[in-house]
Amino acid sequence: MALWARQASRWRCLLKAARAAEFPGRLRGSSTSTAQACLGLAPRALPPFPSDVLPWRLQACRHVSVGSCSPPDSAKDGSFSSPESTLPSPVKQEQAKAETLPDLNPKTLYEDWDDIPPSSALEEISEEEAVQIIAEPLLPLRSSTLRDYVDHSETLAKLVHLGVDLSQVEKRQKAGQLLLTLDFEKDIRKILLFLKDVGVEDNQLGPFLTKNPYILGEDLEALETRVAYLKSKKFGKAEIAQMVSRAPYLLLFSVERLDNRLGFFKNELGLSVKKTKDLVIRLPRLLTGKLEPVKENLQVCQIELGFQRNEIQQIVFKTPKILTASKKRLRQTFDYLHNIMGIPHHMLTHFPQVFNSKLLRIKERHMFLTFLGRAQYDPAQPSYISLDQLVSLPDEVFCTEIAKASIQDFEKFLKTL
């Protein structure tokens, strides 16, 4: 019986060594040493076994090969001790550890993952899982405001950070559609760098793009060509920066159109090249606005108001805004100054800024001076009051220095009108 148990122990050690070869590292080393120890105890030549013993040995090996540690049925009646009981305790511990460790083979793990079926959209979920699902809001196919797209568009978010007023941009025709089709890094960044190079200040980029978002869709090479044209006409860098900032649409005009505009004001007003350049620097929107109102105002000044050509040149050069002013306002202001106050043409030519003043302000001060007997606008007479003093001074200075009265008297007089 002892020989049979010894043979069963040897076969068990051999099986343990084969199983330990599948595990890496520590387990492999410990199992191999144990197997070698068991092999060392086994004899090289086995004596013959009786025929009634061999079937049990094969049965025991079969049980061991499938990982079972239970003895054969014939051993349960207590006729002989279990082979496992003859194993030392360290071998039992190693065996227990080997049986509980999972298979760490990466190939086997990947195969297990591949066996997991993908989740289906039609798969039923619990109410708790359904409540935890957060759905992203869908973009509207159509919207009357850019506000609905700001949270989903990096371009719009960065433009808002720059100070662009999208509520004003969306009022301009097709401007909102343009912004939604542009990429900030690819399309917009280079335009911003160009504007900064031209001279637009960082704090003015937002207001500039609010007034002219269309420049973001312009070709960079075309913009650089227009700036190069202005430089060729002897406009300085600071002057170009001032013109672009005050007239945001200036760089949308082609070189041919800019050249035609400069030629128009030079020929129509009879100005020199230098004076024409100074004129558009002071009022750059003359290059971007419509020419019809300019032509009409020139005709009003010459035909209705009676100014000569040389007088119109002086008026326009000193006060460029008169070219874009309301024709009705020009007529009313001239009528009161010339026909009521008696101001001649040459004095209006000398100080045309009076046309930029409010007509109500001119009336109130002239009537107050008339009430005080000090309405004298003839430079040859004593107590002469110039048009500059009449309209440019604040009320306190006008009352004390020109009217020789108090501000309270002036306010009381205004209540009588």
UniProtKB/TrEMBL annotation:
UniProt-annotated location(s): Mitochondrion
Region Disordered, annotated ranges: 72-101
Family: Belongs to the mTERF family.
Keyword Protein transport: no
CC terms in the record's Gene Ontology section: mitochondrion
Annotated protein name in UniProt: Transcription termination factor 3, mitochondrial
Annotated GO MF terms: nucleic acid binding
Major site of localization recorded for this protein: mitochondrion
Stored Pfam families: mTERF (PF02536)
Keyword Transit peptide in annotation: yes
UniProt keyword terms in alphabetical order: Mitochondrion, Transcription, Transcription regulation, Transit peptide
Chain intervals with Polar residues compositional bias: 79-88
GO biological process: mitochondrial ribosome assembly; mitochondrial transcription; regulation of DNA-templated transcription
